[in-house]
Amino acid sequence: MSYYDTLETRAPAEREAQLFAQLARQVAHAKAHAPHYARLLADVDPAACVSRQALSRLPLTRKRDLIELQKSCPPFGGLNAGPRSRARRVFSSPGPIYEVQSQETDHWRMARALYAAGFRQGDLVHNCFSYHFTPGAFIFEGGARQLGCSVFPGGTGQTEQQIQAMVDLRPDAYVGTPSFLRILIEKAEESGADIRSLQKACVSGEALPGVVRQWLGERGITVRQCYATAEIGVIAYESEPDAGLVVDEGALVEIVRPGTGDPVAEGEVGEVVVTTFNADYPLIRFATGDLSAVMPGVSPCGRTNMRLKGWMGRADQTTKVKGMFVHPEQIAEVAKRYPQISRMRLVVDNPDAQDRMVLCCEAGASDAALAESLVNALREQTKLRGSVEFFAPGGLPNDGKVIEDKRVY
């Protein structure tokens, strides 16, 4: 078994000691240089932050609050510990939420996850994450470059051009969503295009159903998935299929009871909370809104870090569709434009393992022009395509839900 470095096979006690030595330094650094943490941690003694118990007493910073934080303290909500001029890039994710990339090549620590997926120096990686507005493509490109891989910036869409590039360049590996990889392969098979050079893939942005993994495996592609966010970078990654996700060595992960900061017992489902150690963008007890649970024991690959069961839903109504977060606030913005609609609800499902959005609207009257206008407004807010379905007044459940995730995996 090959490992990215010796950190992956450390004794758990050694890892804990080193992580919490880093935590004390990071808390001190964040208090001194990031305005948000100067306020939030004003009464915290950094030298006392040397255990999980001490960590659990620190306040959370919630992803869902970033929009308002950034409005009150633009552009990054005071979470950045350096000037904007020191950033290599800045990004805008739906919300909008603005993110910063430091000068480090692998700012989001993706190299380790790619290595576990079999990526090696000299590989050509076909990158099908978006290079527009959001950091997705750059997260994976930074990790690939750190490993010594070359990258083709395919981006999203343009299926025929993507396939032609694969035929001509013969890439070794793919990064992107699993659903788009399947689309590419199906189109290539229909047209007779030879893209069999693809032998491995690291996918993210959406769930990897077992049926899709098997389908890709039958075509000679070994697939591993990773769990990452725009702010944090890699949280955990897959090293063996169906053996959970190994927590990244640069992340300190807790599972807490939703709505609180209280850690739950091993195996209990709770919200994923992450602390990272980037000096330019320190995140301390960052509550992702995602649900997961800790798996017992050590990964069969020999890596000794904590394992997560994977993504198990959302602690709030924010959801991820085709790799993009969709927030209740965005649906509310759409609703404000249409006073003739009494209630609006976004339903997300996945027929044929493909994410789909349907904007359900209660309206006394409807027509094709209104439906088209709503589709355009939804796309403007979320950067995603969806359809519209109308209901008579009172036809939608009166349960307070703005986003309903009905996907089955």
Automatic annotation (TrEMBL):
AMP-dependent synthetase/ligase domain segment(s): 118-275
Pfam families membership: AMP-binding
PANTHER family xref list: BLR5969 PROTEIN
Protein name: AMP-binding protein
